[in-house]
UniProtKB/TrEMBL annotation, chain B:
SUPFAM superfamilies: Molybdenum cofactor-binding domain (SSF56003)
Keyword Signal attributed: yes
Record-given protein name: Molybdopterin-dependent oxidoreductase
Keyword Signal carried by entry: yes
Length: 156, 735
């Protein structure tokens, strides 16, 4: 089957039931999206399907169809992506870093939906992304900084 | 993949060895196995420092990076004394080789105190070799030569040279003994004490493969495991015909999970061309487990046994000092209470995994391990393979928290790799495997009684501690120290202990023992403070008395009452603590907690709001810590403290507990074993450090323990309900 990932078309031979996460990691060697729980509970595997965040560990690859998949490796292609990445770097958000691909993908989606999110909006949008190191205070701060930079139309 | 820090043969041949009194570097060992790569034109100054022709410097980071920032922090110490600009520095993870690099472990918040001097001395020794080389070339006295930003200068003659231009000559110089090299005075630090972002942060943000689970090798296959659901059970019989018929399945391998004696098997590994295939195939596996009488172990049974134990006399003594019965009999007021806490899992977000390749009688591992050296010993034992036939690459680690001090995943993948020689194999636990096959923080129960004199002073303290052990000794992480605060400050103390049997393997969870003891003792002290009619900071300051050193006892370190007093006074100022006890249940409350652990003194004040429905919202936490003379990397220090505080909240207020039924673990994933989510994080955790004239110590753990009693004491202030059992449930709290 054909799969468009990060603006590149791939031809993939895989069981349509195989989760997108494992196709990305094993077949396409895109290792940015992470395996955390296999049950849609932690958000480490979050990717965008036509701009919408999904848990790739629960998404059968056969269900992706023609939707464009965007992973952390190309999140900068999203309108808010670079602002989020710059804020994350500036505030040095990661500790272990394992969840951060999912956090950044979710935050990028949030800023595409809501240009000036408040704490409550951030908490609601990011609730599905667990950070075991609990970098949550910096995540809130980085999203606000990215929103501010996006509002000004300049990189942080 | 992380490039391992390996020394090229060509460079090595022109390099001298740096023989140090402390770390005993033997750079020659890095060539063992002929696996050395490189071949750039860099010059090796010692096992940690290479200099490139463009005057950039490669510094080896030797310890496991689990998110504590050590891969950035240890090289900062070397770079400081080497006197280079941080922008000139490239950092590479070293191989695991304790003969070459000394202790390579991420545990006990020990990396900072253990390495503060040796890493600085390593940089200073390399600098001294460069200075000596320059002085010789210029025919001037070494003392007249200065360095800055990777340059050597001789001001009287106006001569300057880059480190790169001197590197080859320097590498031929006899290295100085590490304990003889002069170190920079503190006031000339340019890197230590300045904020440096994580060296891997850019790669993390690009989704680069850094972690153990990201290891990829040509021809790699994958393994999922089916482990006996009951610890210490074994494989009775199994039928793998249906599994082997599945397309993509390569092998089914019986292995020892690492908790059984050698020669016994409790786990079946399914090897396939895809992890997803291997994981799906588990459902087709038929296994009869031999469980013996192991089904007797359960949460309910432990609770009943603990209750029975607490009704009787302790089996043994941890501390018997003075005469506690006389002390209690003479007290004007006595207070008794029972406290308990559950087993906990670690749940690193990166599930346990490891990659191995067995080839030509040698094993190579790519291991997300906090303690690769102990993994090497255990793998050597299970495979009967010499330790020097095992090469260990240290990957970045998606969370440690103590889980990866254990080496089960290394032992397991080693056996799997040997069964498929020549094929690299990556073994990954599914989340349920990770939750159900952990080394758990042991549960514990305490029956406490204390006596106050007419002035409200604590004079006698008795505790009967019940936890898990065998043969009269605690099992791993079930210890209690005889110095448990405030025992050293009281005349009459009895800490008795009784041990229950369990089949669960136990282990160190971030701030081990302290994460439980701080809750018990600082909560109980708040009860005593109330009985004495004062607030907890006042009560603890009264116990501390004059500034002095209390002696180290056994494994417990010296305790400095002055450092304790300073952080308590400072956090009260910082938070505006009013010194009064709460007057009633108002729905809002503040709580205080102090604890000394992992060489750090921490005092915390927590503000909580409890709704009528019983929802607990932590609004703000003030933290003051003393970890010695320097906070090496402030941007990371703040993050470590905030993460520790939130981790303490996770351990106490969101329902974390591990239950056991018929010998097996009940919880399986983050629905039944919740992790903290963003909406539970306080709006603010403000952090302040006070410095003291002692060598700096670590920050991975000591900020965690005091936040739990600060929370329970705040809940008492807000609701009048005393939380004596974790996880916190207001229904079970005592009004």
């Amino acid at each position: 089957m054909d799969l468009t990932v990060n603006r590149v078309k791939h031809s993939v031979t895989a069981d349509p039931e195989k989760p997108l996460l494992w196709v990305l990691r094993e077949d396409l060697h895109l290792l940015g999206a992470k395996f955390g729980c296999g049950a849609g509970l932690c958000g480490a595997c979050t990717v965008l399907l036509d701009g919408q965040p999904v848990r790739s560990c629960l998404t059968p690859v056969g269900a992706v169809g023609e939707a464009a998949v965007t992973t952390i490796e190309d999140v900068a292609s999203q309108p808010a992506g670079q602002y989020v990445l710059d804020a994350w770097a500036d505030l040095d958000v990661p500790q272990c870093g394992y969840c951060q691909a999912g956090q950044i993908v979710s935050a990028t989606w949030l800023l595409g939906q809501m240009p000036d999110p408040q704490d409550e909006d951030i908490d609601a949008a990011m609730s599905g992304n667990i950070c075991r190191c609990s970098t949550y205070l910096r995540i809130r701060k980085a999203i606000k900084a990215a929103a501010k930079a996006q509002g000004k139309g300049e990189a942080a | 993949m992380n490039a391992p820090f390996e020394i090229s043969r060509r460079s090595f041949l022109s390099a001298s060895l740096l023989a140090g009194a402390v770390l005993s570097f033997q750079a020659r060992l890095a060539l063992a196995g002929d696996g050395a790569t490189g071949g750039e034109d860099e010059t090796v100054l010692n096992a940690f420092v290479r200099i490139n022709p463009d005057n950039s410097v490669i510094i080896g980071a030797k310890n496991p990076e689990i998110g504590q920032g050590v891969k950035t922090m240890l090289p900062m110490l070397i770079a400081e004394e080497l006197d280079v600009d941080w922008d000139q520095v490239h950092i590479e993870q070293t191989l695991a080789d304790d003969k070459l690099y000394g202790r390579q472990s991420a545990g006990g918040s020990r990396s900072t105190p253990v390495n503060w001097l040796p890493m600085r001395q390593t940089g200073a020794a390399a600098r001294q070799m460069l200075v000596t080389a320059a002085a010789a070339q210029w025919g001037v006295a070494p003392a007249s030569v200065t360095t800055a930003k990777g340059m050597v200068h001789h001001e009287p003659s106006g001569r300057s040279a880059t480190y790169a231009s001197l590197a080859e000559a320097a590498s031929a110089i006899e290295p100085p003994a590490l304990d003889t090299v002069p170190l920079k005075p503190d006031d000339s630090f340019r890197i230590i004490g300045t904020s440096r972002r994580g060296v891997d942060t850019p790669a993390i943000l690009q989704g680069k493969p850094l972690f153990g689970i990201d290891t990829e090798l040509p021809g790699m296959v994958y393994a999922a495991i089916e482990a006996c659901p009951v610890f210490l059970g074994t494989i009775g019989s199994f039928d793998d015909a249906a599994v082997k018929a599945i397309k993509g399945v390569i092998a089914v391998v019986p292995i020892n999970s690492g908790i059984l004696p050698k020669g016994k098997f409790d786990t079946l590994a399914i090897v396939a061309d895809s992890w997803w295939t291997a994981q799906q195939a588990r459902s087709q596996l038929k296994v009869e487990w031999d469980l013996g009488d192991l089904k007797q172990f359960s949460t309910e049974a432990y609770a009943a046994q603990a209750d029975a134990a607490l009704e009787g006399a302790p089996q043994g003594d941890i501390l018997k000092k003075g005469d506690v019965e006389a002390g209690l009999a003479g007290a004007v007021k006595t207070v008794s209470a029972r406290y308990d806490y559950p087993f906990l899992a670690h749940c690193t977000l990166e599930p346990q995994n490891c990659t191995g390749l067995f080839e030509d009688g040698a094993l190579t591992l790519w291991a997300p391990s906090q303690s690769p050296g102990s993994g090497r010993r255990q793998v050597s034992d299970i495979l009967d393979l010499p330790q020097d036939a095992i090469t260990i690459h240290m990957t970045r680690i998606g969370g440690g928290f103590g889980r990866r001090l254990m080496a089960d995943y290394m032992v397991q993948v080693a056996q799997i790799a040997r069964a498929v020689p020549g094929k690299p194999v990556k073994m990954i636990y599914a989340r349920a495997d990770d939750v159900r096959h952990d080394y758990y923080r042991p549960a514990g129960w305490h029956a406490l009684t204390a006596g106050l004199d007419k002035d409200g002073r604590l004079v006698a303290l008795r505790d009967h501690f019940v936890s898990f052990g065998a043969d009269g000794q605690p099992i791993r992480a079930a210890e209690m120290e005889e110095t448990e605060f405030p025992a050293q400050l009281l005349p009459d103390v009895h800490f008795g202990v009784s041990y229950l049997a369990t089949n669960l393997p136990t282990g160190w969870l971030r701030a081990p023992t302290s994460n439980a003891m701080a809750f018990v003792f600082q909560s109980f002290l708040d009860e005593l403070a109330e009985a004495a009619g004062v607030d907890l900071p006042t009560f603890v300051l009264g116990l501390l008395g004059e500034d002095r050193l209390l002696p180290a006892v056994g494994r417990a370190p010296q305790f400095n009452t002055g450092r304790a007093r300073a952080v308590i006074e400072e956090v009260c100022k910082f938070a505006g603590w009013d010194g009064k006890r709460p007057t009633g249940a108002s729905g809002k409350g503040r709580g205080f907690g102090f604890y000394f652990s992992h060489a750090g003194y921490f005092a915390e004040v927590l503000d909580v709001a409890v709704s009528e429905a019983g929802d607990i919202v932590v609004e703000k936490v003030h933290v003051v810590g003393d970890i010695g003379s320097h906070v090496i990397n402030p941007i990371n220090a703040e993050s470590q403290v905030q993460g520790s505080v939130l981790d303490g909240l996770a351990q106490s207020m969101i329902g974390q507990k591990i239950d056991q039924s018929e010998g097996a673990i009940v919880q399986e994933n983050f629905d039944s074993f919740p992790l903290l989510r963003i909406e539970t994080a306080p709006r603010e955790v403000v952090v302040k450090f006070v410095t003291s004239p002692y060598p700096p110590t670590g920050l991975g753990e000591p900020a965690l323990p005091p936040v739990i009693p600060a929370l329970t004491n705040a809940i008492y202030a807000a609701t009048g309900k005393r939380v004596r059992s974790l996880p916190i449930s207001l229904d079970n709290a005592v009004a």
